[in-house]
Design brief:
- By secondary structure, the protein is α/β, with parallel strands linked by helices.
- It is 39% helix and 18% strand.
- Helix 4 runs parallel beside helix 7 and helix 7 runs parallel beside helix 9 (193-210).
- The longest helix has 18 residues, at 146-163.
Length: 255
């Protein structure tokens, strides 16, 4: 039986997307054709196009026992120095598609320097390794002017399309689920779910109006998995949803 060539995927987002790419589906040649080329996580549109921290503004804790190849450590150091844009440019020419989700932008707070307009995503790895010095404050996505995200998305995608003119961009727009007692550790996040959904739709529409070959997936039927390997979260789904997302990605890329 003919097996389609591999489709090489870059994920700019979170585990709820990358898990679908990593899922093996040997019973489905189209779904099994997807290959993860690069996963850039623990960042967001408000932070990715700003400047990094200076050496006198932070110190690293607990880094002596960390392997340089540890994914979480790499993402934290990328966020400190803002290397994400360069990394994406380095690999985009080998990819068929960029999959974007905005979950991390919503569920993690930001370390903000208002004076210089710098934003840093305060992921769990950031909290583990980074101690900042100076007049930084904490904000959430709904505190950040949405124009920052729109401008950053345009700047980022424009450079990626320039490097890879045949690029396809797919927004994964998952909804949080609160079944079986699963909820956010921070109650304030749950209060702003409507903001997250409106934010995601606005950025998707902006991308559709500005760039070619932009699509969206959200296969429906989301259900949180209370026994998820990464712990219960409204964005950690059952295998059925993950399989559905992988199948939808394969269908779109198959054309």
């Amino acid at each position: 039986m003919f097996r389609p060539r591999h489709k090489y995927i870059i994920v700019l987002g979170s585990c709820c997307t990358v898990d679908a790419i990593r899922l093996k589906r040997h019973d489905d040649p189209d779904a099994d054709s997807l290959r993860l080329l690069w996963y850039q996580g623990r960042t967001s549109l408000p932070s990715i196009c700003t400047h990094g921290l200076r050496e006198d503004e932070f110190e690293l804790a607990g880094s002596d026992s960390v392997k340089p190849t540890d994914w979480g450590w790499m993402m934290v150091t990328d966020e400190i120095s803002k290397r994400q844009h360069t990394r994406l440019l380095d690999v985009i020419g080998m990819s068929d598609a960029l999959i974007v989700d905005l979950v991390s932008a919503f569920v993690f707070p930001y370390v903000v320097d208002r004076r210089s307009g710098r934003y840093f995503l305060k992921s769990k790895e950031w909290e583990r390794y980074v101690v900042t010095r100076g007049p930084f404050e904490q904000q959430w996505l709904w505190d950040v002017p949405i124009e920052r995200s729109v401008e950053a998305m345009r700047t980022l995608l424009d450079s990626l399309y320039t490097r890879q003119p045949a690029l396809q961009v797919i927004f994964h727009l998952p909804r949080p689920c609160f079944n079986d007692g699963v909820t956010f550790d921070t109650p304030e996040i749950a209060v702003h779910v409507d903001y997250y959904q409106g934010y995601s739709q606005l950025l998707y529409r902006e991308a559709v109006e500005t760039f070619p070959r932009v699509a969206a997936i959200s296969c429906g039927g989301e259900q949180a998995d209370p026994a998820h390997i990464n712990g219960p979260s409204p964005f950690h789904y059952t295998i059925r949803y993950t399989e559905g997302i992988r199948n939808d990605l394969a269908r779109i890329l198959r054309g």
